[in-house]
Amino acid sequence: MEFAKLHGLGNSYVYLNLLGDGGPSARGEGGQGSGGERPVPPGALDWAHLARAVSDRGTGIGSDGLILILPSQVADARMRIFNADGSEGEMCGNGIRGVGKVLYDRGLVRSRHVRVETLAGILALELFPEDGRVQRARVQMGRPILEPARIPARLGDGRAPVLEVRLEGEEAVVTPVSMGNPHAVLFVDDLAKAPVQEWGPRLEHHPAFPNRTNVEFVAVRDAATLQMRVWERGSGETQACGTGACAAAVAAHLTGRAGREVAVHLPGGILNVRWDDSDVVWLEGPVEEVCQGRLDVEWLRRRGLLRP
């Protein structure tokens, strides 16, 4: 089974291109075709289990999750994303830039303007290639969701509410925002001392967020600059999170801390976010391919990844 590993600011995913006929292929002894290659029916694979296996940095490839690129009836391609723990996510701002790069660099689309179907809706990308390969991408992320019932968050009615969450005697004040997936934005004075490893998992699994949540720890440098660390739902602390950067920008503006256009500084680098006057959020950042390879069919079998 051929794969590619890409990252956006260190937020890395393993990508499987499932746009071709007959599904993915795997290499093993006795296979059909040149070099022992034979098709693996997509229905034979447990995607959640595969995501956990390939994400393992000791016995797998090492990543923050798995992204499938699938045919779509309404867009250039459809994206499914599985977190490192096997749970399926709605969207990923860094991951979708990788989808655009795979489509363009491999000649699957010719236009620099691409539409990708996700569980959060159809999103438009503008790709910026150099020498025929995409280096950056801008994503139309859609309108932020601020109604508690749609985030979802259990805290009553209203837009952009501030939620006080009790964590074993401590209190965290967060701003819930959805960018197609749930986020809890927490503003801090000193990012280096932010309790990411302690509060991240506790907020992720807090009953106020019935679908769990991503958690952003944000320090405001000035009205146009944010610093952020992120605890991603299903993956833990990562180097960057595109939807998280968007949620942080929205929360910072709504609470009077920043303007509508900000640079979000993460451990992996900088993402640029703009919340325009029509209420649409735009995300721009780099994307890079790390490697290509092939998963061995015997490894799939030994890990119990192939269904009977």
From TrEMBL:
- Kindly list the residues the record flags as site (Could be important to modulate the pK values of the two catalytic cysteine residues): 183, 232
Question: Taxonomically, which superkingdom?
Answer: Bacteria
The entry's keywords: Amino-acid biosynthesis, Cytoplasm, Isomerase, Lysine biosynthesis
GO BP annotations of the record are: lysine biosynthetic process via diaminopimelate
Q: What is its EC number?
A: 5.1.1.7
Task: List, alphabetically, the Pfam families matched.
Answer: DAP_epimerase
List the signal peptide residues: none
Q: Could you name the active-site residues?
A: 92, 92 (proton donor), 241 (proton acceptor)
Q: Where in the cell is it found?
A: Cytoplasm
Pathway(s) this gene product operates in, as recorded in its UniProt entry: Amino-acid biosynthesis; L-lysine biosynthesis via DAP pathway; DL-2,6-diaminopimelate from LL-2,6-diaminopimelate: step 1/1
Residues the record lists as binding substrate: 11, 83, 93-94, 181, 214, 232-233, 242-243
One example GO MF annotation: diaminopimelate epimerase activity
Assembly behavior: Homodimer.
UniProt family annotation: Belongs to the diaminopimelate epimerase family.
Q: What is this protein called?
A: Diaminopimelate epimerase
Native organism: Limnochorda pilosa
